Each structure stands twice: as C-alpha cells, then as structure tokens.
Amino acid sequence: MDDATRLATDLAGVKLRNPVLLAAGTAGYVDEMAGAMDLAGVGAVVTKSITAKPREGNNTWRIIESRTGMLNAIGLANMGIDAFVRDQAPRIAGAPTTVIGSIAGFSIDDYTAVAAAMNGIDAMPAVELNVSCPNVHGGTEFGVDGAALRDLVGAVRAVLTRKRLFVKLSPIVVGAPGATIADIARAAIEGRGVPCGPGSRPGADGLCLANTIPAMAVDVHSRTPRLANVTGGLSGPAVHPAAVKLVHEVYRKVAKGANVPIIGIGGVMRWEDAAEFILVGASAVEMGTALFVDPRLPGKVARGLGAWVQRQGASSIGELVGAVKL
Ligand SMILES: Cc1cc2nc3c(=O)[nH]c(=O)nc-3n(C[C@H](O)[C@H](O)[C@H](O)COP(=O)(O)O)c2cc1C
Q1: Mutate to test the pocket of ligand 1, among 235, 271, 292 (most ligand atoms within 8 A of CB)
Q2: The domain that contains 78 carries what CATH number?
C-alpha cells in the first residue's frame, strides 16, 4: 500500500489526496505558492478570507515574529468578492490541488453576499466561514455567541446550496456567559433551517479549530506596540497545545457523535504535531505559520504522516482519527 492510499482523506464528501492543507490567509488566493512549493503535495489550499468589499487591511507592521510564533494583524486585506470571482476563480479549476474558499464579514449580509458568489464557483468544493471577525450588531464576534452563530450559519447555508460548509471557530469563547467551545461547535453544526444539497446538514458540514489567539507585543526601547494595530493574533508553535485541547474537547463532546469532521489548526510545524491533531479527533490539519519558515514543510509533514500510519499498522489515516488512548 502506498502513501496515496494511506493518506486519502474525505472531509464530509470532499475528497482530498492527503490531510495536510494550507491555512487561510497564509498561502495567497489560489496558487501563488506554486513557485515556492509543490502544491500537488498538499491536500488543499484555503484561500485568504474574502469579504464583500475590497479591504486595504491594517497599517504596517502587521506581521511580526515572536519567540514562539507570529503575531499578525492583517485586517482582512483582500480584493473583495467581485474581483475574486473575476480574476481568481478562473484559476481554481487548473490549480494543482483542491481550493477551498474562505469567507469573512462583519454582518450576516456580508457573509451571505460572499457565500452566494462562491456558490457559483464550480471548481471549489467547500468553503470555510471565518467567524472570528467583530459582529457589528452585537459588538462581538459570531464565534463567541452561539445564538448569533446559529443565525449566521443558517443564513449562509441557505445560499450555499452546492458546497460543503466548514466553520472556523475562534479559540476564545469567553464572550457569551457560560459558553464553552463545545456549545459554540454545537451551534455551528445545528445552524438554522433545512439542509442544502445532497448529504449536507442544516448547519456546518465540518469544523475548523482554531483561529489565532488575541495577543500583543511591545518594543521596550520605543515603548510602542510592535503592531500598528496594537493587538493581533498569535499563531505558530505557541498555540499548538491549546488547539489540540480544543479539538480533543469538541471531538469527544460534539463532533464524534454528530459524525462531523474536524480540521485541526495551530502550530503544525512537524508531522508529530499533525499526528497529535489526528489522534485527538481531527481528520485533517492546516498549516500557516510553518509556510513562513519553510514552504516545503507541508510536503514533509504529509510524508511523515504516511510513514507514521504505516508504523502504526493502520491501513489508512482515518483509522487513527480520535485513536488517542486515554
Ligand atoms: C499572516 C496570517 C494571515 C491570516 N489570515 C487569515 C485569514 O484571512 N482567514 C482566516 O480564517 N485565518 C487567517 N489566519 C489564521 C490561520 O489560517 C491559522 O488559523 C492560524 O495562523 C493558526 O495556524 P498556524 O499556527 O499554523 O499558523 C492568518 C494567519 C496568519 C499568520
């Protein structure tokens, strides 16, 4: 048996050649990384998050290195959905790997406008909903408020009739009283309304855990924040154990019973990090910060996973999903 068979992955009906994906916002729109790495060696590229209108994003510095990872405050800089559909979508069909869309917004109308447009991109089998942006109505994020998230997912589901829907949760859920990550995950899966398309659910078909952790760094010489935006999101090795715990909790309390796949995201730099995610219940992983260190790392992680599956005596990586011995 070869790696192709061992690593083939099915995310709610989306078939990928392996479970190593490039994370939203770290790999361009479609295939910009092709010059730096072999895109055919990864399971999918997730586009940077697309908003209804074009956005310049925040002032620089908006990406800085920290001792244990990176802080970014890009501010969702992107060309907006109209330009994305016109200029980028035609390249998706010819990309050397699967391309998954990512949607961000500040209101339900924003999200549904982008979702409706992405629904028309034939070569894109799934989209991620990035719910870690401020919700202008409540002044909070959809990702920390179960009721708001249900409404959002339901509204997006209604227009996203031809795609699988993965909801990317925030790692911080302290916004709503008593809300745990499992409550938020449940809200995402339940959504509102009726399932759209054969085999799909009323809410999310999959969950992505997680986005960056709010963070800040200060230059002690100038006594100024190192990011122009003052605060940003921490990613990389520092967040990995926290993300593993989130996947573990959501898998056991919600996703396993509902048969909803999880994509583990946060600090995957080596195959062992990806294997940890798989063992606590992720069906795939995404890598972001690692690409800034060495764009060849995702290929190495995929090869390492293939060898690990074989050493574990499993015939496919799916057999090891959630197989941690507690
Ligand atoms: C420079 C940069 C830009 C990002 N942009 C987005 C984005 O547009 N949408 C999104 O959902 N996540 C975005 N993220 C978060 C990543 O997709 C990922 O969730 C996070 O970085 C944790 O994974 P990592 O530790 O492998 O980087 C961004 C991260 C970085 C470092």
Answers
A1: 235
A2: 3.20.20.70
